[in-house]
């Protein structure tokens, strides 16, 4: 039976390595856009049991010396209201492992990471799309966000000596062209800081987003499903 199934998968262009990813979405309920979205802790825990790389890791406790500045847990953000009940940052385990390496590289320079956001529940993406006028700076719920997959992080660099951020082209979440990582009209120091961030992140499997210098997608994001589980539910799931 298994041989017949593998033959069918081969005929349809699905490799044995891709089989778990190709079949997994069928067990996930689809939302109104037809997207498979994990919405229960029970299903999430089942996926983690099958593949530990699916675990959403709490970054501050996992990455030594990491600084958090979770503006979405406050009103100081692009929608002017809190969208998280808890100031926390999560990411899939391979993402967290890569961030550990980034942090180690930066530490040798007397620097470290500050995280603005990681995993973002899908309903928050829907809320942003309704509220933010500049649609180029928010994900369309019809597609979902790599944040919703636990495979995107928003971050910057700080000095370990005083915790201050290195100067970057704009503040976090600025919806302006100056936020683009290739925007040329910045000072030499700002360009150096931005280049350092891009370089160290790329070294460990991340790609900078085309219009946000602070946003980085992890290389394996396609392996992981969209999720819509609030942080507090994830914490309950560990009890």
Short description:
By secondary structure, the chain is of the alpha/beta class. Helices cover 32% and strands 16% of the residues. It has helices at 2-11, 19-23, 41-50, 59-62, 93-107, 122-131, 188-203, 231-236; strands spanning 37-38, 56-58, 67-68, 90-92, 111-117, 152-159, 206-209, 212-218, 226-227.
Description:
By secondary structure, the protein is α/β, with parallel strands linked by helices. The chain is built from eight helices and nine strands. It has helices at 2-11, 19-23, 41-50, 59-62, 93-107, 122-131, 188-203, 231-236, and strands spanning 37-38, 56-58, 67-68, 90-92, 111-117, 152-159, 206-209, 212-218, 226-227. A hairpin with a 2-residue loop joins strand 7 (206-209) and strand 8. The radius of gyration is 19 Å and the shape is globular.
Detail the topology: elements first, then pairings.
Elements: H1 2-11, H2 19-23, E1 37-38, H3 41-50, E2 56-58, H4 59-62, E3 67-68, E4 90-92, H5 93-107, E5 111-117, H6 122-131, E6 152-159, H7 188-203, E7 206-209, E8 212-218, E9 226-227, H8 231-236
Parallel strand pairs: 1-9, 3-5
Antiparallel strand pairs: 2-4, 5-6, 6-8, 7-8
Taken from the alpha-carbon principal axes, the silhouette is globular
- Count the beta strands: 9
Q: Please write the string of helix (H) and strand (E) elements.
A: HHEHEHEEHEHEHEEEH
Structural class, from helix and strand content? Answer: alpha/beta
Question: What is the helix fraction of residues, given as a range?
Answer: 25-40%
């Amino acid at each position: 039976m298994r041989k017949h199934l593998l033959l069918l998968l081969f005929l349809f262009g699905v490799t044995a390595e891709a089989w778990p990813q190709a079949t997994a979405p069928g067990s996930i309920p689809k939302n109104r856009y037809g997207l498979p979205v994990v919405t229960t802790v029970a299903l999430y825990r089942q996926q983690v049991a099958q593949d530990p790389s699916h675990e959403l890791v709490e970054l501050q406790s996992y990455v030594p010396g990491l600084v958090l500045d979770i503006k979405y847990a406050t009103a100081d953000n692009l929608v002017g209201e809190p969208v998280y009940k808890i100031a926390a940052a999560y990411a899939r385990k391979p993402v967290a492992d890569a961030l550990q390496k980034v942090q180690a590289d930066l530490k040798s320079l007397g620097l470290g990471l500050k995280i603005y956001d990681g995993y973002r529940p899908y309903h928050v993406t829907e809320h942003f799309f309704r509220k933010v006028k500049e649609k180029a700076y928010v994900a369309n719920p019809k597609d979902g966000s790599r944040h919703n997959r636990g495979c995107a992080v928003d971050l910057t660099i700080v000095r370990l000596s005083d915790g201050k951020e290195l100067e970057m082209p704009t503040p976090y979440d600025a919806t302006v062209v100056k936020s683009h990582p290739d925007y040329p009209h910045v000072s030499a120091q700002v360009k150096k800081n931005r280049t350092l961030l891009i370089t160290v992140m790329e070294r460990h499997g991340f790609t900078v987003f085309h219009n946000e210098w602070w946003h980085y997608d992890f290389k394996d994001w396609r392996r992981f499903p969209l999720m819509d589980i609030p942080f507090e539910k994830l914490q309950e799931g560990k009890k």
